[in-house]
Amino acid sequence: MKLIWLLGLLVSYGVISDGANSIPRRPPTVHVGAIFTLNSTIGKVAKVAIDAAIDDVNSDPNILRGTRLVLTTQDSMCSAFIGVVEALRFMEGDVVAVMGPQSSGIAHVLSHVANELQVPLVSFASTDPTLSALQYPYFLRTTQNDLFQMAAIAELVDFYRWKQVTAVFLDNDYGRSGISALGDKLAERRCKISYKAGIRPYPSKSEITDLLVKVAQMESRVIVLHSYAELGLQFLSVARDHDMMSNGYVWIATDWLSAVLDSSGPLPPQTMDSMQGVLTLRQHTADSKEKKVFAARWSFLTEKQGPASFGLNSYGFYAYDTVWVIARALDKFFSEGGTITFSNDSRLQAAGSGSLHLEAMTIFDGGEHLRKKILETSFVGLTGLLQFDKNGDLIHPAYDIINVVGTGYRPIGYWSNYSGLSVVPPEALYLKPPNRSSATLLTVIWPGGSTAVPRGWVFPNNGKQLTIGVPNRVSYKEFVSVVRGTDMVKGFCIDVFTAAVNLLPYAVPYKFVSFGDGKNNPSYSNLTYMVASDEFDGVVGDIAIVTNRTKIVDFTQPFIESGLVIVAPVKKTNSNEWAFLQPFSKEMWCVTGVFFLVIGAVVWILEHRINDEFRGPPKKQFITILWFSLSTAFFAHRENTVSTLGRLVLIIWLFVVLIIQSSYTASLTSILTVQQLISPVKGLDSLKTSEDPIGFQVGSFAENYLAEEVGIPRSRLVPLGSPEAYADALLRGPGNGGVAAVVDELAYIELFLSRNCKFTIVGQEFTKSGWGFAFPRDSPLAFDLSTAILQLSENGDLQRIHDKWLKSTSCSLQSAEIESDRLHFKSFWGLFLICGISCFLALLIYFATMIRHFYRHRLDEVVPPANGTPRSGRLKTFLSILDEKADESVSRSKRRQMDSSNSIGTNSFNL
């Protein structure tokens, strides 16, 4: 029995021992590396933050649970070569993760090594957008991607309605990638980088000066400076020396400047003077108790660095959180059975026969497992919630927008990828639905001390003249014309452009270049295409603003309204002896005549029993009906109406007669005095359905509009080159080789009609457009000239220029609606309906009263009719009641009542 118990105990002990050994024991230490430039603005802050985080992790028993992190730090010394060499040393040891690198150039190289050796690179400072998670799966970023910083700058540019920026950047992987991302984000908002000024990593002061001189000659005054701290400060200093920090300039620095302001403490006054009014961005970190506690520890942590203390910037917070990201990922790694083991790479073994000793580098077997645990990390650190999205970027990217003023700076708002620009902290907006429609920022103090938003653009002072194309017209030269034998250009459009340019707050050198052969009006579509293809810097003339053109160029505010209208010939009609019948159509005359008779008959019926004027012999009564009804047309009826129903019908009829009479008078006057159209074309609809040829001006957009929008065959469209050709074609008409109508813009037609009284505008203007000056897309000059044109309109100068060139009194313009159509019954049927209903109701009430009276009469009758059927007798009695006078009917009723009373009395006496 004891033997059996002992065997069972041994078996149980073995099972328990095997179960305990199934979970690998955690190693006592884990080696991690860090590589960055220790003496840089970011590096010296990151070094202190990382050391503090290592101490905090190792002192917390709830994180690695007995395992200690051992940190090895390498200094890249601002050199990509040294950085790569130092990083490769990590790979010779048992390093499971590397924090950094700080440089994007080093990150690109080491990411290839990390992919091969499966060692995660966890960077808190490399913001290059091209470090893609697809190409470099082992490169993990615990800071914000520059793609979001450039999105914030693009939204800032669009918020202030600037269209172009000049990009000054460091010409390396970091600078080029950031500016490329900026260009993409600006393009999404129809803005662009007008000039890219790249510079080598370590330039001399003269090189910086030469570059900024070129920048000053550009038209854009919005400058985005994307650099590292030391070079960026040199740029701002040289810019101040060359008066590029004055009114009109806008400087936007990326987050390198905020890092300098946060970590460098009080800067020298001369340095602060060189950045007054500059806007910069800072990676947003949410306020929290943990953040305040760490900031309070900072002065103690930096004491060991020496007497030259420095402040804490946002990169320090991200460096601290990076250590915790790795620690938490390792804790999950170990909890899920991960082990720290390395294996040799056969390819490196084959390549390591030389002096490089590549065979010393080994593959981290658990690298893929650890990488996944890092991406699954989610906790609240000093920077807020640290969690990765599907692209490997931190969620909720956000930036503080800072304005450098005086001896420090002031926040003017925030940007987040969630809700855009706002003065509300992003973490408060995450609780609400996203809303980008209410973007707002606080007031900015711009370079030069002004609070007015700079225009962001001035005309460049590099001596370049704008080449302005003008159409060489052969007709309507009042608008624009080239003086033969000279380079001079004159006309209404030229004067408007000159006056607008004179109102600009800067000089605009330009020269006019004519376009066209001088024999035919040029194609205005081709002229605008030449602006889009940079053959012209702009076009000035009678250029219609239409959809196809606005797709390729930008137009100024219209300086004259000019839609398409139709012109047709007119003639003076001589009135004949039957002109008085023309105002009404045949249908109208017939209906009106019938109603005159109906109204006379209705009034006679209503008045016959009670009105002596409507009684008498049948012949007299018939004449009375005719006379009464016709005399109401002139309100000259002599017969009085005494019945209520008769007066009601008469009042409504007299109202109808008043409307008809007034309309007749107006229509007859128009027929006798207004000219009538020769052409059957009376508007766009009749133009479309007709088969007659239609004229248009050579070079005008009217041809394409009529063919493509209206659907008129091009075979019907006849090109005409001058006002004289218009007049000749219209007078000849479609039957003699001419046209039935001409379609052209209103501005031309007004000038044409001022000298040709035989023609007029038919129908309404069927397009709404205007003329403007054309410039390349997103040209700031188009915006400034639009403002100047509005100013010309408000002060009256635009009208004075118009009167100078286009006002003519030789012939008054005709009315746009020239034909006087006859009056038809459909225009008055409502009045006749009201009148008819009133007559019907009056007769209905009247006959109901008479029927009631008839039945009373029958009850009063004692003796039935002697002869005839009872039905015919009742009809005769009813008609007699209708015909007899009302007082006679009453008297007869009273006599019958008395006879009935006497009869009753006699019978009683006999009884």
UniProtKB/TrEMBL annotation:
Keywords, sorted A to Z: Disulfide bond, Glycoprotein, Ion channel, Ion transport, Ligand-gated ion channel, Membrane, Receptor, Signal, Transmembrane, Transmembrane helix, Transport
A GO cellular-component term linked to this record: membrane
Transmembrane segments: 591-610, 650-674, 828-848
Disulfide bond residue pairs: 757-811
Residue ranges with Polar residues bias: 899-911
Gene Ontology BP annotations: cellular response to oxygen-containing compound; response to wounding; signal transduction
Primary location: membrane
Signal peptide: 1-17
Pfam families in the cross-refs: ANF_receptor, Lig_chan, Lig_chan-Glu_bd
Origin superkingdom: Eukaryota
Domain Ionotropic glutamate receptor C-terminal, residue spans: 467-808
Molecular function GO terms recorded: ligand-gated monoatomic ion channel activity
InterPro entries to which the protein is assigned, alphabetical: ANF_lig-bd_rcpt, GABAb_receptor_plant_PBP1, Glu/Gly-bd, Ionotropic_Glu_rcpt, Iontro_rcpt_C, Iontropic_Glu_rcpt_pln, Peripla_BP_I
Protein's cellular compartments: Membrane
Function summary: Glutamate-gated receptor that probably acts as non-selective cation channel.
Family the entry assigns: Belongs to the glutamate-gated ion channel (TC 1.A.10.1) family.
Xref: PANTHER family: IONOTROPIC GLUTAMATE RECEPTOR
Protein name listed in UniProt: Glutamate receptor
